[in-house]
């Protein structure tokens, strides 16, 4: 029930909740076994961990909603990463780089009982380069006696180490106070979109669907536009390209090239990369291998786009392999797996033959239009009035909540706040979403609806 609600593109916000996409992001990085997961559990508390552990929520989930001193934020957990000994330095640094690109500030965890290692030094370099604020945590300081251990971490050059025992909770409050002080009010990673200039696109999808093939097809054949298009600031990992006659910024192309899925601990990496790319983008093209059965993993990527509040286009790739036998099966799989997102533009392509690749551009435009649509308050309320007159909320235990007033609080993605006399049940909220889409379009964009109860 909850999952269906999310996949339908509606996520209800509680009360005065800040939308997740705007919450500041804190990432926890460090070598394996320094206690990152223990620290994350400590911050989240058991209750939060259980809440997140609902069916359909991915095992390799790395972003959690957390709260400290009444301030909500997003915690990025990079623990749980399976590693092998070979190439460990590079891997940990790589992981830190991804996490940092996702975050507004970073908690760097070092094992105080071990002291600084060569791998820790590598991570420090990555953190320095990022320019993001860093809090150095000396973990496993289980007692006052161990505090001398923490002092050895001054040599990392990241300032004062915060002595903490993630296991027992010692020092974690002070540490969190310090971490919160590093976070901005509104996230710069989720929300920082350059105004004007080319839009930012992420090509995402599970391994082997054809991301690198599509990238190469675009880079190889489309004119790569000059770098100094007005209003463009971009990472070296991003690429400026032309699709369908317009310039676009493809984000995190380095990540696509790196083919992370061939290495060990790959799923976790791929998931981090995907999330980082989606966060950086305004619109995501989720690529699905049309020649194969649609899987849970495909749906999960779509879910991540919706959760992040980004515009969405679904591209069915490898259409050159499509035969008439497979086709009805594909349509049925789409019907079953993606029934909740009929609003997402669909394009069938072949990265290999370049068939219809240029059409992606048109769909990106459509999705971004929906994402940026604003409904004037007058029109919205006329619509809500008609909707509730024609189809009122069902009566529940003798009560019938009424919608009093609505407003679109935000765009990119569209966010609506409805004031009502009582709780609106999920089915009715989905009905409102469906009708909103019929009336105002919103093609290619998730919609957020929050309900505030006024007596
Ligand atoms: P990760 O790989 O960085 O996520 O590390 P884990 O959180 O899995 O912790 C690795 C090991 O260190 C586990 O056995 C933990 O119980 C232990 N550990 C974590 N934090 C502390 C701590 O504050 N004190 C002590 N003594 N052990 C800890
Ligand atoms: P990625 O892991 O998502 O980057 O996928 P790749 O681009 O590496 O593609 C995985 C495999 O699918 C490779 O063998 C590609 O040649 C193949 N492939 C990708 N796109 C197409 C396509 O449109 N048609 C066909 N027939 N094969 C494709």
Automatic annotation (TrEMBL):
Molecular function per GO: GTP binding; ribosome binding
Gene Ontology process terms (BP): ribosome biogenesis
Gene responsible for this protein: der
A Pfam family hit: KH_dom-like
Keyword Electron transport found: no
Keyword terms of this UniProt record: GTP-binding, Nucleotide-binding, Repeat, Ribosome biogenesis
Protein name as annotated: GTPase Der
SUPFAM superfamilies xrefs: P-loop containing nucleoside triphosphate hydrolases
Function in brief: GTPase that plays an essential role in the late steps of ribosome biogenesis.
Lineage top rank: taxon: Bacteria
UniProt keyword annotation of Protease present: no
Organism for this UniProt entry: Serinibacter arcticus
SMART domains: AAA
Domain EngA-type G as annotated: residue spans: 24-187, 199-372
Similarity comment: family membership: Belongs to the TRAFAC class TrmE-Era-EngA-EngB-Septin-like GTPase superfamily. EngA (Der) GTPase family.
Chain residues that bind GTP 2: 205-212, 252-256, 317-320
Binding site for GTP 1: 30-37, 77-81, 139-142
InterPro entries referenced in this protein's UniProt entry, alphabetically: AAA+_ATPase, G_ENGA, GTP-bd, GTPase_Der, KH_dom-like, KH_dom-like_a/b, P-loop_NTPase, Small_GTP-bd
Subunit structure, interactors included: Associates with the 50S ribosomal subunit.
């Amino acid at each position: 029930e909850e999952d269906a609600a999310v996949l339908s593109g509606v996520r209800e916000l509680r009360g005065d909740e800040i939308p997740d996409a705007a919450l500041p992001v804190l990432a926890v990085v460090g070598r394996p076994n320094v206690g990152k997961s223990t620290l994350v559990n400590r911050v989240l508390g058991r209750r939060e961990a259980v809440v997140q552990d609902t069916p359909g929520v991915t095992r390799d989930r790395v972003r959690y909603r957390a709260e400290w001193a009444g301030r909500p934020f997003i915690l990025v957990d990079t623990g749980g990463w399976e590693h092998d000994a070979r190439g460990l330095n590079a891997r940990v640094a790589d992981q830190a780089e991804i996490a940092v690109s996702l975050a507004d500030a970073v908690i760097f965890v070092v094992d105080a009982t071990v002291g600084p290692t060569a791998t820790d030094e590598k991570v420090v370099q990555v953190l320095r380069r990022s320019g993001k604020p860093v809090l150095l945590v000396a973990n496993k300081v289980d007692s006052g006696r161990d505090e001398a251990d923490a002092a050895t971490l001054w040599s990392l050059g990241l300032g004062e180490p915060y002595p903490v025992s993630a296991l027992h909770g010692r020092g974690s409050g002070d540490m969190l106070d310090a971490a919160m002080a590093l976070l901005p009010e509104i996230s710069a990673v989720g929300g920082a979109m350059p105004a004007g200039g080319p839009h930012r696109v992420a090509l995402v999808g599970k391994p082997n669907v054809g991301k690198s093939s599509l990238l190469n097809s675009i880079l190889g054949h489309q004119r790569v536009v000059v770098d100094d298009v007005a209003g463009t600031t971009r990472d070296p990992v991003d690429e400026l390209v032309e699709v369908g006659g317009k310039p676009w910024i493809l984000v995190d192309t380095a990540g696509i090239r790196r083919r992370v899925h061939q290495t060990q601990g790959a799923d976790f990496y791929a998931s981090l990369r995907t999330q980082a790319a989606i966060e950086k983008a305004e619109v995501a093209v989720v690529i699905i291998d049309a020649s194969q059965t649609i899987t849970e993993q495909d749906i999960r990527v779509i879910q991540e786009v919706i959760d992040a509040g980004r515009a969405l286009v679904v591209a069915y790739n490898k259409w050159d392999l499509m035969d008439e036998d497979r086709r009805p099966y594909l349509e049925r799989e789409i019907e079953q797996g993606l029934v909740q997102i009929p609003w997402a533009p669909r394009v069938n392509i072949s990265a290999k033959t370049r068939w219809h690749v240029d059409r992606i551009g048109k769909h990106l435009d459509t999705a971004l239009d929906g994402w940026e649509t604003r409904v004037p308050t007058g029109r919205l309320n006329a619509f809500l009035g008609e909707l509730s007159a024609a189809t009122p909320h069902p009566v529940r235990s003798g009560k019938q909540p009424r919608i009093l007033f609505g407003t679109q609080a935000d765009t990119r993605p569209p966010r609506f706040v409805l004031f009502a006399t009582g709780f609106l049940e999920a089915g009715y909220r989905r009905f409102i979403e469906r009708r909103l889409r019929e009336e105002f379009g919103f093609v290619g964009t998730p919609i957020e609806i929050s309900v505030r109860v006024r007596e």
